[in-house]
């Protein structure tokens, strides 16, 4: 029973984020922002949607329950959600699920963005591991961690290229000028 409440909670959180992202997209595009990465975005949506379907199926079919390790995993999940809020609020109106860049906008370097370039991708990666492990959904954790890794191999370079084209991204992160790839999220 706890799984169903947890599952619905996380889905409602994601749906709320999509509403926020839609509003931010309109706000940004009304001010001249440009969208990049449209080709891979449906893949991201598909993987994130399938994550919840497969998670539900694995827990339901195998009648999984809450892991005995929940006292360790749940606080990590809660911290990841605090990190998600921190990352999203730091970006403010510039946060989106799509790659939308406002030409010549200041690059955000506050909050977790002082510490790393893509904190929300790290948080999503943690969620794809922690949420399934909370309910013994090991297949879901394995498959979607791999799929997320593949997506990030596409997504991060596309996002960084867009930021380099339209902002002073390289100047904002001078120590990372020559960095590339997934290992630098």
Automatic annotation (TrEMBL):
It is found in: Membrane. Its main location: membrane. The keyword Methyltransferase applies. Coiled coil: none annotated. The keyword Transferase applies. One of its GO terms (molecular function) is methyltransferase activity. InterPro entries: ICMT_MeTrfase (IPR007269), Metal_cation-efflux_comp (IPR052527). Gene3D superfamilies: 1.20.120.1630. It comes from the Bacteria. It is a multi-pass membrane protein. It holds the Pfam family ICMT. The chain crosses the membrane at residues 6-23, 43-62, 68-88, 119-135. Keywords: Membrane, Methyltransferase, Transferase, Transmembrane, Transmembrane helix. One of its GO terms (biological process) is methylation. This is Methyltransferase.
